[in-house]
Structures are given as structure tokens and as C-alpha cells.
Design brief:
alpha/beta; Rossmann fold; 7-stranded parallel beta sheet; globular; binds uridine-diphosphate-N-acetylglucosamine
Length: about 350
């Protein structure tokens, strides 16, 4: 079986790592296509190096742009790449513009498409990620769902016949890297604050692109009575500079984006997390660090159970971050850390049954 993965943005490199390893372990052919949506070394290359992902076979080099320009450039470049490799599956990950482009390009060429992380919904149609998820699920031949809730949502949308529950591949990586970090390996922790600290990341367009909202979020972070390690996404840095919003204030310590092992190490040491990232909400849950999410909804609703994750508007942030640490044990709604193997099995079985049909 030949699988062609289309990835382009930071969280997709993390998801690619266990899938690439599972495909290699089972002797399947794997072609990796990097769209170039993320291109800074610390947003891309370090993930391939740290997570031991094979270098991309194809790099489209599209870079940044408006949604239409960025997605269109990917579509134009993907036709030739997909024609050249003629894979048995085009595998797309998550909810980014790279995902939508990969899915659309593949269906137009009548190549089977599988969507990893299918069935998640925020129901917030202002988010570009929401359009990308819905469109990709409905274009896909196979929806690989991470949770029971995602399976139920796909069924409500009439897609039950094409979906398989595989678990969450990010959990595979997170648990593996956690064990390495706890065993004293890999992650340099020297520049983490010595005192108790909160990890913060903000990058969603809804939070960064409105100067008044961005200012309110940063002001709330600065009002927290402890050190805030702000891992600054390039979009945050660019939008804050353009809007004249100073990030380094109060006890905020602005830091470069971290590698995956460094992020896990920071989360394990932090007393809490403030974020608008989907991945970080889940990683905080898996690592037992209370999370406060600066959004009005989350697609990872399981994390809200027992207050391990709470939603907050900027005006509520200071109070919510200081809530008591939840005492309830966490469940395992994201699988057992072996989702990537289940992905390979699901692809193989779906390929077999379609060749029999
Ligand atoms: C994208 C995804 C989002 C995901 C996030 C992870 C979409 C619609 N959004 O958002 O779902 O959570 O990736 O980070 O696909 N930039 C750089 N260097 C880079 C990459 C980006 O400087 O390597 C800057 C550019 O100014 C760019 C901006 O960040 O315009 C936004 O990047 P883009 O890839 O368009 O979206 P993200 O905000 O990263």
C-alpha cells in the first residue's frame, strides 16, 4: 500500500510522526508532502528532527498568504505531485488549509482520501479551521475519528458508513515524549523559569487579529500573579507589533516557539496553561496540567470534564486561571497511545474492501 501524507503546519508534523513510524514498521510505502504553510525552522524543521520524521519527499514551498492565495497555491502544486505518485491513499491531517487543499486535490483526481482527526466540530463558523474540517470530512472516503464524540458527530452528518474510530495519534506522541522527558532524556529544561509559572500560547485569528481583544488578553496575562511563559507564535508577534500591543509586560516572559519535547517538558513543570490551541488543550489534559482556553467553545469537549479545562473570555481569565486544581481523576477519552497502528489497519482494510467491491 502506498500512502501519501499531506502536511504543512506545526501540529500536523506532530501527528505525522507516529503515522510515519507505524507505516514504516508495517512495510508500507509512505510519501510525505510538505506544503510549506509553516516554514520557519522552529515551526517546521525542528519537529522533523526531534520526532525523527523522514524528510519530506516533496516540498511545495507555498508560504504564507490569505486563505484563498495560500490554499490555491497548494492546489495548483498538488495536482502534479499526486499524479506522479498515484497513491492508494491520500492522508490529510486535522483542520488546516493544507488539509483542505490535500483533500480537494485528491478527490478531483479520483484518488481515495482519508481524513485523520475527522468529526471534530467547534460549531463556530467564523473559524477557518471549522470550514476546513467540515469540507474535508464530507470530501473524504474514510473518516478516521479520534473519539466517540467525533464518531457520533459524523453519524449525525450522515457519514457513519465511512468512519472508523482509531483514537488520537497526538496522544501516541505525547505519552511517548512525556516518558522520555520524565526519564531525563531529550528536552533541555535549563531556560524554564525556576519559580512556578503558567505556559501561554495565543495564535487564533479571532484572538490575534482584533487589536482590542488582543490587548485584553495580554493585559489579563500580565495581571496574573505569577510568571507567564508566553511561547509566541509568529502570527502573535506580527499582529501584536502591527497593533502596538506590547507583549513583554508584567511577569510575561516572551519566548520563541518551543520544540515538541521542550513543550512537553514545560507543560509538565507548569502550574497551568492558557491557550487557544486545540493540541495544547489536549496535551495539558494528558499531562495533568489544568488548562484555561481563551475561546468560546472547544472541539475537544472531553477536556472540559471535571474542570481540567475551562473556557474563558479575556475578562474572566485572571479568575479562571487561579481556580483550584481539579481533584477528579482524568479518563482516557483519546485512546491508549496506539492510534497510529489503528490508522494503518483501517487504511489497509478499507483498501482491501474497496478492491473486493
Ligand atoms: C495554522 C492553522 C491552524 C493551526 C496553526 C498551528 C489554518 C487555517 N490555520 O494557523 O489551524 O492551529 O496553523 O500553528 O490552516 N508565519 C511565520 N512563519 C511560519 C508560519 C507562519 O512567520 O513558519 C506567520 C506569517 O505571518 C503568517 C502567519 O504566521 O501569515 C499565519 O500563518 P498561517 O499558516 O497562515 O496560519 P496559522 O496562524 O499558523
Amino acid at each position: 500500500m502506498r500512502v501519501l501524507s499531506v502536511v504543512g503546519a506545526r501540529p500536523q508534523f506532530v501527528k505525522l510522526a507516529p503515522v510515519a513510524a507505524a507505516l514504516a514498521a508495517t512495510g508500507h510505502e509512505h510519501v510525505i508532502v510538505h506544503t510549506g504553510q509553516h516554514y520557519d525552522t522552529e515551526m517546521s524543521d525542528v519537529f522533523f528532527a526531534d520526532l525523527r520524521i523522514p524528510s519530506p519527499d516533496e516540498h511545495l514551498g507555498v508560504g504564507s498568504g490569505s486563505h484563498g492565495v495560500q490554499t490555491g497555491a497548494m492546489l495548483a502544486a498538488l495536482d502534479g505531485v499526486l499524479e506522479r505518485h498515484r497513491p492508494d491513499w491520500v492522508l490529510v491531517y486535522g483542520d488546516t488549509n493544507s488539509t483542505l487543499a490535500g483533500a480537494l486535490s485528491a478527490v478531483k483526481l479520483h484518488l481515495p482520501v482519508a481524513h485523520l482527526e475527522a468529526g471534530l466540530r467547534s460549531f463556530n463558523r467564523r473559524m477557518p479551521e471549522e470550514h476546513n474540517r467540515v469540507l474535508t470530512d464530507h470530501a473524504a472516503d474514510l473518516c478516521l475519528a479520534p473519539t466517540d464524540a467525533a464518531m457520533a458527530q459524523l453519524a449525525r452528518e450522515g457519514l457513519a458508513g465511512r468512519c472508523v474510530l482509531v483514537g488520537d495519534v497526538m496522544t501516541d506522541v505525547c505519552l511517548r515524549v512525556r516518558d522520555t522527558v520524565l526519564a531525563g532524556g531529550s528536552a533541555p529544561q535549563a531556560d524554564l523559569p525556576k519559580e512556578p509559572f503558567v505556559v501561554a500560547t495565543i495564535h487564533r485569528a479571532d484572538n490575534t487579529d482584533d487589536p482590542a481583544r488582543l490587548e485584553a488578553i495580554v493585559a489579563a496575562l500580565a495581571a496574573l500573579p505569577r510568571t507567564v511563559l508566553l511561547l509566541a507564535h509568529p502570527r502573535l508577534v506580527a499582529r501584536a507589533a502591527a497593533a502596538g500591543v506590547e507583549l513583554s509586560r508584567g511577569r510575561i516572559r516572551v519566548s520563541r516557539p518551543r520544540s515538541y519535547p521542550e513543550t512537553v517538558a514545560a507543560l509538565l513543570r507548569a502550574t497551568g496553561v492558557v491557550t487557544d490551541s486545540g493540541g495544547l488543550q489536549k496535551e495539558a489534559y494528558l499531562l495533568g496540567t489544568p488548562c484555561t482556553t481563551v475561546r468560546t467553545e472547544t472541539e475537544w469537549t472531553e477536556t472540559l470534564q471535571d474542570g481540567w479545562n475551562v473556557l474563558a473570555e479575556p475578562g474572566e481569565l485572571v479568575e479562571r486561571v487561579q481556580r483550584a486544581r481539579p481533584q477528579a481523576p482524568r479518563g482516557a477519552p483519546f485512546g491508549d497511545g496506539h492510534a497510529a497502528e489503528a490508522v494503518v489497519t483501517a487504511l489497509r482494510e478499507a483498501q482491501r474492501s474497496s478492491s473486493l467491491a
